[in-house]
Amino acid sequence: MGMTTFVPNSDRNEPADAPVVAMNSDLNDISVADLINASRCAEVIDAMRDFYAETDRLIAVHQPQCANRGLCCRFGEFGHRLYVTSLEVAYYLSGHPVPPVVEDDICPHAYDAACHARDHRPMGCRIFYCDPAAASWQGPLTEERLATLRTLHEKLNVPYIYADWMTFLKALRAHATSYLTS
Ligand code: SF4
């Protein structure tokens, strides 16, 4: 497959009036159209597949244990948030082009005590363990991986947005719904 370069603000595949995901007044917004176009870029997919393979390898070194299967994906109940970058969302979309309905403050991929987006789940899902033994390595690893992600954003020309996973999912679902019903 030939390499394609992601071009922000391009409307070659998606309507230019697709909703904008407004994240943080300190950051640029990004349109859902840009996220979808990035998700179709072979260079983006290959780079993120390699990034997660390396991330998983770095985590496995620590042999972490998951004791609360799926509880941390129930954000309100667990009392934390999952932040992701727009490049991660683009890769997620490459495997889940029609995101599921979002209800409550629970990741829609969390059910039956399992993650149903496992191959395309964000970095935070991979690194986070509530096991106290993970506290010594997950912070430094997160910082290092985020720095690498920033470099990838620049290399792939994908605008860097770091925002709540549920905010992204709601915007993607709203766009998919309007697309499916139009
Ligand atoms: S993508 Fe998977 S691991 Fe991440 S919050 Fe959703 S269900 Fe949990």
Main traits of this protein?
6 strands; single chain; two-stranded antiparallel sheet; binds iron/sulfur cluster; 182 residues; 8% strand; mainly alpha; globular
Describe this protein's structure.
This protein is mainly α. The chain has one domain. The chain contains 7 helices and 6 strands; from the N terminus they run ββαααβαββααβα. The chain has helices at 32-39, 42-60, 75-78, 86-95, 123-127, 135-156, 165-181, and strands spanning 20-21, 30-31, 83-85, 110-111, 114-115, 162-164. The strands form 3 sheets. It has a two-stranded antiparallel sheet with strand order 1-2. Strand 4 and strand 5 form a beta hairpin. Helix 2 (42-60) runs antiparallel to helix 6 (135-156). The chain is globular, with a radius of gyration of 16 Å. Iron/sulfur cluster (SF4) is lined by residues 73, 82, 107, 109-110, 115, 117, 121, 125.
Strand order of the largest sheet: 1-2
Shape: globular
**SSE order:** EEHHHEHEEHHEH
Overall pLDDT score: 84
Main beta sheet strand tally, sense and closure: 2 strands, antiparallel
Q: If helices are DSSP runs of H or I spanning 4 or more residues, what is the number of helices?
A: 7
- Quick one: how many beta strands? 6
Strand content: 5-15%
* Overall SS class: mainly alpha
Small-molecule binders here are: iron/sulfur cluster
